[in-house]
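Table 4 source record.
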Amino acid sequence: MSYLSFHPEHEPSQIDRKKTGKARKAFSEWLIENYGTDYEKSLMQQRSLKMAPEVTKAITTDAIQKPLVGIIGGGFAGLYAGLILQSLGIEFELFEGSDRVGGRIDTWYSTKYDANDKNKAGLYGEVGGMRIPQFSEDMLPVQQLTLAVNAVLQRNGMNDKMLNWRKFYYSSPEQRMRYNNMEKPIMAQDATLDTLNFDREQGGDIAEVWMTAVKPKDGPAYLPINKILDKVNEPFIKKINQSFSDGFKMLMDYDNYSMWAYLTNVFELKDLDEYYDPAMGSKTDHLPYNVASYLETLNVGTGMYSVSFVEMILATYDWDGSKNSYDPTDPNIYMVTLDKGMQHFPDACKEVLNLEDGVLPDDGNRAQILVGMISGTNGKKGYSPDNLTPAAEPPETVPPAHAGDPVKGKPSYKRERVHMNHRVSGVTYDPKLFNGQGGMNMRIKHKGESIEKQYPYVISTLPNGAYLNGEKDSNFFEGLSFSKARAIRESNYMPSFKAFITFTQQFWAILGKRQDSGLGVGTSDRSNRQIVYPSYGYKSESGVLQVYCWAQDAEHMGALTDEERVNECLKGIQFLYPEIDIYQFFAGYKPEETTKTWFWDNHANGGAFALFKPGQFKNLYPTLLTPEFEGSLLLAGECCSVHHGWIVGALDSAYNAVLNILKQNGAEDKIRQMEQTWGSLSSPDTALQKMQMIREHA
């Protein structure tokens, strides 16, 4: 996911790089400290309970045991929870309702795809997550996970399944932009002073004062409208850079506003400071509707400014996390993606989970050093993962990591823990289980049969919409607390649409003359919105263009039939390439071979990823984190994090769920082992400890 600027003038420039990547983690802590009273109360009560002795003994020791944790869902939250438990010697079972793992990490491969044929190796695209920022501190655990998994695969002779990162080209000076029936598209490098036909003189609806270039005595010329978001972000970024706590307090004063409401009801023209012109209106006036519409159109998509203002400000930090954190003078964007498709990532995790022995502490610790999560043997942080393809190698300004040699370890034998095509239809709490200490009953459907399982703990990682099981006589959950049931019902998920269209010739590469360096993303105001150019398959004559949009644009596209969606995408691509007939290169409508469209599927039951609406961070986030049924049921998934729409959000939530299980059983040695192996990802528990210390010293 990415919901950031397409226009070069909107790229943030005032962010303190030292704080980049830390903002969301600090925000998570701040939310718990200031709005987590019920969370703290529930957790303290649960952790004070006396657990069944045999359960606690099994969790705190390495004795061979029956599965203690049932995990629902094989997305990254479920897989990561399993990998942590496996590394700690705590047995579990994971149930995935479909025939693949990964959840929203899902690569589409054409039926003609062949990784060993250069003319067919590029015939794929990412239905789900397709990239991660390379140097963002908050995002580093995703790269650490690939290295830890690789260590296990290598010692077990599965080198063909090892994970390698390749460069993802997000931006390019030659990426195309065309809006409002412009005569022809314009390149991003030429767009700084272009009105894109939004001004009244060109048939648009925005007054010329906003669209007329201003040439200051010092600095480059600019369009006033392209300076608005800088001024919207500036006071919050400045305050957060000075103090996370004070910055978030200031930000939360506007938590009940959507981005649209803030722009049109709070922000005043006087806040433009040096960019203000009296012709815009009175200094106390708010931004006109047409101006807000322009900002939404160029930055995100139709209807997306209805989400929380807080989400949009924090997105600015996520965007800056795409830059080189070791060199504040480096303006380039650094993103990576998995070679040959992101689907290989969850598949590799599954391979490891189905081994008796998984990631060792030394595997995880060394991986943390290699990506810069912790300091190396020289006492400094660096970055030099050994699974980067040449184009993804860091720039010279990034120091290397100093890590010891990898631990050899021993090969393992198979142990099936991941159960595919096992659809969990419900879980209920039974206080009589496990010698009266309570536990969860799980109902599972597999090949027409019903299976029942019992566990002291269940970690459920489904998207919130998937808790509607569609059954005649039973709900997925029974007896949830009012707050948890409301949080599941109200948490906002954002619609997403993607399409993959094959062309017999990569005309975009010929016209762009930059394919080996990436063309980035082409944009327009047509319903298909973005064309994501492939960052691979350069040597093939044919290729796949990916169309990507969100919110209302996605809903409009999703309402069509599959072939109608493809037709709309083709018209949008033609709009960006008026100088040629793109249809002469279209490989034809052959679903799964040459085309694929995705809106949402029955495993997600709604939107693609969480994106909170006004007020939901402070009112719903702590509730989603709170375990239910005396700690026996824990929810995880990117919704249960502040990293909405990113893989790391799923990882954070899974880490926190496992930590709660360990805390409840007093497994301090296991907690230290988890931190050694996986780092310290969980912000909520850190915030909880701070709250307790403050109260103790009050």
